């Protein structure tokens, strides 16, 4: 079921919401959210999809139907729901899911803040989230990305938005204002502008149709490692021949770290798809190896697929990789489910060189 259809039905018929709002809400499905361990834009309030799901129906490679979870919590062995969440279709096909739903919000509040640096803004996000009650969205844009979006000049811009009942929203509004006391308030209209265009990627598509390469790379990093990782990954991507823009925003916050979301664009010196692909793979290699060196995770919500498969064993370690491969062998001995995804061994020959070789 597509995300927008789910939310339309839930809200209009039951006054409920799952609260999972990825930018791809109208392009993506509940099964895809679960298969890729996705995140919605309001995940500080509603959780990432692995926090929202309580049970699954899964069809295994041999046709066996498995039902997992279904209770608020239980203590009955490992959580098999979470085994399939993020498995990207390599262990089974998700055919049903039980998700937590909440009442549709009755109040909301927006604010926007100017920080002298991305690092100062990130520190405010950390302080807010560590108070234990944070706005549904805290989105911090570095100066280049904010200026590109809203013409705000040489400042990092934090957008804060919360929704819920009035008392909760009042509390997060107070907490946000207290932790942003060193920042200059901006017009909250910026949040409205973000909401109006938050799922609109037509500007990127326009660049791609003119021969530019545009992509995004997201990951998580601890608050301690965030400042160094932000600059080194941004600069490593920017140093790739052909890259003309490398910017970032902080999109999701946790008590122990945050998701950084890098956006990069470039134009290859030579014409044709091979030159674009070479630039694309070089930018990904530079960004990912730098991130892994500086304490970043391989991904936050886009998953691994084929493009990140070559980094899986390096990022997960030998022990974890062998457990994952053993599970694959047990559940899909003939390797028929999504061969090559997640860096799993494939029975159908090697992946093309550009995806297959470990970096
Ligand atoms: C413009 C754009 C914006 C995006 N924004 C976000 C965002 O804000 N947050 C976010 O988390 N992601 C985002 N994404 C990535 C993507 O939409 C999500 O990861 C989404 O969760 C994938 O769902 P899908 O239905 O599109 O899956 P697909 O792309 O169709 O499939 C992804 C993988 O999951 C497997 N799969 C799909 N359904 C099932 C199933 N039922 N059972 C088993 N395996 C399955 C597929 O085989 C494939 O390997 C964005 C993508 C685009 C293009």
Structure description:
Belongs to the FAD-binding oxidoreductase/transferase type 4 family. By secondary structure, the chain is α+β, with helices and mostly antiparallel strands. The protein has helices spanning 3-14, 30-36, 43-46, 49-52, 80-84, 118-129, 143-150, 166-179, 189-197, 202-209, 226-238, 273-293, 312-316, 318-331, 353-356, and strands at 16-17, 53-59, 65-69, 93-99, 102-103, 107-115, 137-141, 156-164, 184-186, 213-222, 243-254, 257-266. The strands form three sheets. Strands 9-6-8-7-11-12-10 form a seven-stranded antiparallel β-sheet, sandwiched between helices. α11 (226-238) packs antiparallel against α12 (273-293). The structure holds flavin-adenine dinucleotide. Residues 22-24, 27-29, 31-33, 35-36, 38-39, 88-89, 93-94, 201, 301-303, 338, 341 line the site of flavin-adenine dinucleotide (FAD).
Strand line-up in the sheet with most strands: 9-6-8-7-11-12-10
Radius of gyration: 21 Å
Number of helices: 15
Mean pLDDT: 95
Number of strands: 12
Strand content: 15-25%
Tell me which CATH architecture of the largest domain applies here.
2-Layer Sandwich
User: How helical, in percent, are the residues?
Assistant: 25-40%
The number of distinct structural domains comes to 4
Anisotropy-based shape: globular
N- and C-termini, Cα separation: 36 Å
Structural topology:
Blueprint: H1 3-14, E1 16-17, H2 30-36, H3 43-46, H4 49-52, E2 53-59, E3 65-69, H5 80-84, E4 93-99, E5 102-103, E6 107-115, H6 118-129, E7 137-141, H7 143-150, E8 156-164, H8 166-179, E9 184-186, H9 189-197, H10 202-209, E10 213-222, H11 226-238, E11 243-254, E12 257-266, H12 273-293, H13 312-316, H14 318-331, H15 353-356
